[in-house]
Amino acid sequence: MKRNETRSVRVGDLILGGNDEVIIQSMCNVPTKNAKEVIEQILDLEEMGCQMIRVSCMDLKDAAAIKEIKENIHIPLVADIHFDYKLALACIENGVDKIRLNPGNIGSRENVEKVVNACKEKGIPIRIGINSGSLEKDIHEKYGKPTAEGMIESARRHVEILESMDFYDTVLSFKSSDPLLCIEAYRLASETFDYPLHLGVTEAGTMMTSAIKSSLALGNLLLDGIGNTIRISVNGAPQKEIPIVKELLKDCGLLKSVPNLIACPTCGRTQWNMEPVVNWVESYLQKVNKEVTVAIMGCAVNGPGEAKHADIAIAGGKDEGLLIKRGVIIEKIPQEKMVERLKEEIDAF
């Protein structure tokens, strides 16, 4: 899937834009000043496949924790800053790889110049984040409601501030809780700017609603070739986000080394307790970085035929199942041993 041409922006050891890779991002949900807890969360996210992580910076204690966090993780660290340029300077000094900051919201031009100069010196990019629900008052009054055109106008104001200071290491995002507005805004942004775009649906809700809204909005954009980084926002632990975004990228043909789980929905033909086995496999595969297809099928009608196309499969019968590897039946196993045998086969693949 060919991405739209954009500038290239370096964040740590990653390159955003200018290539066909879409970087997976998430955000910690604990206070940044609790460095040990943040580190633990990030390391867990790394294991799941997160490639870049954002943390909030609410005060100088948060900014001070950046140094310890950065020293103990392996992926680029982004600081989320609003209104206070001094926090941006502190995060930059403590080794952050990128900052999320809207330059029009941090006071005088002199303050912005201090941040921009520090970013230039350290090679740190800035992400400008436009949210449909928090547009400037005059833009909201001009359009009467959140619109794609209004979001682009807001972004242009911030971009022009940075460009007037000869700063171009910029990433843009255009988020809304309305997936259709997201699609419209990002499409217009890709026609208007040549900066890399960070994709996301903001305030998307629970795991179910987020998966649906994000797949609708971001799936369309990804297939259009739009987007260079991506976050699936889910209420609660950020670990919920990674499996959804990996599945979306895989299904769009943008991510390899991701397991593929196939499972039938069950029906009256199913004669074994299939759901807990499927749930276990889904959970286990979240930290497996292999291009392996695992199929869990409920009965002998469709099961063997579908399973033969998988690398590892179970075709269930009455309280038992056939273990099938690449179309060959290996053994018959009782349900109580299915999880154990599946783990063995996945690990050995």
Radius of gyration, rounded? 23 Å
Cα-to-Cα separation, first versus last residue: 27 Å
Residues in β-strands, percent: 15-25%
Overall CATH architecture of the largest domain: Alpha-Beta Barrel
Q: Quaternary state, please?
A: single chain
CATH C-level label of the largest domain? Alpha Beta
Query: Could you say which overall geometry the principal axes of the C-alpha atoms support?
Result: elongated
Pick out the low-confidence regions. none
| CATH homologous superfamily designation of the largest domain | Dihydropteroate synthase-like
- The helicity comes to 40-55%
GO biological process, one term: terpenoid biosynthetic process
Keywords: 4Fe-4S, Iron, Iron-sulfur, Isoprene biosynthesis, Metal-binding, Oxidoreductase
Domain IspG TIM-barrel: 6-244
Pfam families: GcpE, GcpE_C
Please describe what this structure looks like.
- It is a single chain.
- This protein is α/β, with parallel strands linked by helices.
- 43% of the residues are buried.
- The model has no long low-confidence stretch (mean pLDDT 94).
- Helix content is 41%, strand content 19%.
- The strands form three sheets. It has an eight-stranded parallel barrel with strand order 3-4-5-6-7-8-9-10, surrounded by six helices.
Index terms:
349 residues; alpha/beta; TIM Barrel; Sulfite Reductase Hemoprotein, domain 1; 2 domains; five-stranded mixed sheet; 15 strands; 41% helix; 19% strand; elongated; metal-binding
Give the gist of this structure.
This protein is an alpha/beta fold and 349 residues long. Helix content is 41%, strand content 19%.
